[in-house]
Amino acid sequence: MSNKSIGQFFSGPLVSDLLVSAADIQSSESINAIDPMVGKADMLEALRRAGAKPENLFGIDIDGSAIAGATTAIPGHNLLATDAFSSEATDVYRAREWDLVITNPPYVRYQKLSAMYGDDPVDTVRGLLGKVIDALDDNGAKRHYLNAARSYSGLADLAVPCWILCAYLVKPGGKLAMVLPDSWLKREYSAAIHEILAANFTVERVIIDESRSWFADAQVKTSLLVATKNQHWATQMTQKDVRHVGLTKHAANSESLVGNLSYSGTIGTDAFKSVCVNEAQFADESVWVRDEPLYAWDIRMEGVQEHANSGATLRDWHISVGQGLRTGANGFFYFSLSENGRASNAIWSEIVGNEPVDPNELPLIPALRYQDEITGGCLIDNRRPAHLLLRIIEPINFDDAVENGGAYNALARYIAYCETHDVVQNGRKQRIPQLSAVRTNGPTSETCESDRYWYMLPELKDRHMPDLVIPRINGGPVRAYLLPEGQGGVVDANFSTLWVDSRDRADAYAALALLNSTYVRLGLETTCNVLGGGALKCEAVSIRKMALPAPSSELRKRLSDLGMQIAKSNRPSDTDKAQDEIDLAIAQAMMSAENVSDTITKWRDELDLRLKIRRE
Q: Which of 159, 184, 191, 9 is closest to 84 using CA atoms?
C-alpha cells in the first residue's frame, strides 16, 4: 500500500533489508539510528533484524495512521507522529548523535505541496527546514546547509529539503542510507544535494533496481545510496569513483532481493556484501558491478578510462537541446490528415456544418506528433504528414467570417464552439479556453481589440522547429532522426529536440552521426530513466549533459560525411557499415589506437546487455 498524495511508497521488508545490508553497519548493537520519514517503520525493523537494539531506533512521520500501524518491535515512545520539520521532531534530533540516518523520503512534486503546507508552500518548507538546522548543534558545516536550505530550486519536490535535513543529522563518521528513484539525482533541481554529497560525504555505493521490481506501484527504476559523512566540509571535491551495483530480478527470491545472487563461493546477502566492497567489475544476468562517477555521464571502460578525451558537451558542438511543442490542448490545436488529404479532428467533427476541410484553406502547418509517424531510415519524410498544427497568427474577425463563408467561417464556428461548449479532451469534458496552459495565450473573443487570443499559440521557437529529434520514450535503442531541410514542420513534446546553432546542414549531419553512435546510445541507456514495461525515458537534461569527444574540425567533417550516408539510407539495416565507421571515429577521438577495437566491442556488448535487462 502507499499514499501517493504525501509521497509515500512504503519500503517493505525486502527493500529495507537490502538497504541495511548495503549500509554495512559495524557494531550494529550500539548504533543510534533514526528514520525521519519512517512510515510503517520498515527500515527500523530491518535494523532490528540486523542486530540493532530497539531502544536506539527512532522514527518520525507526518502520517499518524502509518505510525499507529508501525511494528510493535520498536518501542512506542521512539515513534513520533509529527512533521519532520516540526519543533517536536527537532527535540528528538537534539537528543542523540546519529550514527545512521536511513529513510525512503517522500517524493511530492512542488505543485502539490500546498495541500500539506498551505499557500506559498515552498517558502514555508524552506523556513521550517532552516529553523530545524539552526536549532541543532553546529558540526562545522551549518552555514553550508543553511545556504542549501535557502537556495535549493523552487521546482524541487519535497525530497530535496528532506535530503538536506537527513544529511545534516548524520554525525561525522556516521552514515546516510537513502532510497531514491534512479532519475532523481540527475534532475537539475537536485544541485543542492549534489553539492552536499560531494563536499561533506564519501558516497560508498549505489544499488540499482535494474528490473524495476522493488516498488510495483511506482513502476520506476529505484536506487539505494549509502554515504559516510566526512569530518569537515570540503572546499575541493575529492570523491573517487563510486561502486555501482545493478541487480536484476534474477538475483531475487521470495525471501530476499539478493537471495539467488552468487559470487566467489558465497550466496545471498554474503555474496551481495562481497560485490559491494571488492574491486572486481563484471556483469551477468543477475548483477552488474562497476566503479564510475556518481553523476558523470561518460562510460567508464578499459581504454576509455585511460585515454578518454570526453570533457566536451553538446554545447561545445554548438548543438542546443530542448523539448517539442506543448500546446496545452492537443485536441484543439492538432488536426489529422485523412487518406484523401482532408483535415479535421474530433472537436471539429462535432460541430454541425463542419466537414473535413482542404488543409490549404486553414492556417495549418506540418507536425510530427508520434514515433510511429517515422518510417524508413534516419531522415524523416513529412511531405505528407499524419498531423497538422493549427497556427493562427492574427485574431479572427468573426463578422468577416460570416460574410466570407467557407473554411474561414468554419474556423470561426470552431473557435466559438470551444468558447461556449464543454468538449471532450483526454476523456474529460472541459472548456478549452479555461485550461491553465491555454488561457495564458490570451482572453476569449468577448474581449475586444486584443492583439492576442487564447486560440493563438505563442511564437514558435527553435526547439519547436528543430534539426533533429530523439523520441522521449524508447522501446528499443535510442535513435536520433533528422528533419528535412526547409519543410517548416513543428515537433510535438513527445520528442526531445536538437538544433545546430549555425543551422549549417553539414553540422546537422555530423550531429546525426554523433547521436546515433553506440557510445551515445550506451550513455543514454546508463543515465536515462527506465519506466515500467522496459521503456527508456530520454529527457533533454540527460542529452544536454552528455560527455563527448572534443569537436575537432577533422571529427566534424568525418561525422558529417557519415551522417549524410545514414540520412540517405531508407532502412536502419542499410547503415551497418556507416555505423562501424561512426563508432570508429568516436573511439579514435577518445583513446589511443591500440585500444579502439576492444573498446568498441565492449560498448556494443554492454549496450546489448542493458537492452536485454531493460526489456525483461
A: 159
Nearest to 87 by CA among 139, 135, 37, 149: 135
CA distances from 33 to 203, 255, 383, 518 (A): 19, 24, 64, 45
243-256 residues labelled b (16+ CB within 10 A) or e (exposed): bbbbbbbbbbeeeb
C-alpha cell read off for 29: 548493537
Q: For 68-97, what is the mean pLDDT?
A: 89
pTM > 0.85 = no
Each residue's pLDDT tens digit, 183-204: 666 666 677 888 899 899 999 9
By mean pLDDT, which of 204-213, 458-467, 503-512, 555-564 is the weakest? 204-213
Question: Three-state secondary structure along 203-265?
Answer: EEEEEEECCCCCCCCCCECEEEEEEEECCCCCCCCCCCCEEEEEECHHHCCCCCCCCCCEECC
Cα–Cα dist 445/347, whole Å: 19
Set of cell numbers at residue 512: 546525426
Terminal Cα distance for the chain, rounded = 25
Cβ burial of 281 (10 Å; 0-12, 13-18, 19+) is middle
Task: Break the chain into its structural domains and give their ranges.
Answer: 2-172+187-202, 326-439, 462-615
User: How would you list the strands of the sheet with 536-537, edge to edge?
Assistant: 473-474, 536-537, 529-530
The share of the chain scoring above pLDDT 70, in percent, equals 89
Asked if 190 contacts 156 with a C-beta cutoff of 8 angstroms, the reply is yes
Report the alpha-carbon distance of residue 58 to residue 64 in Å, rounded: 15
CB 546, CB 297: distance < 8 Å: yes
Taking only the tens place, the pLDDT of each residue in 199-224 is 999 999 999 988 878 876 655 678 99
CATH for the 2-172+187-202 domain, from 3.40.50, 3.90.1280, 3.30.1490, 3.30.70: 3.40.50
Q: Rounded CA gap, 469 and 374, in Å?
A: 11
Single-letter residue type at 334: Y
> Please, what sign has the CA dihedral across residues 407, 413, 415, 417?
negative
Helix (H, G, I), strand (E, B) or coil at 290: strand
Which amino acid is present at 597?
S
DSSP letter, residue 548: B
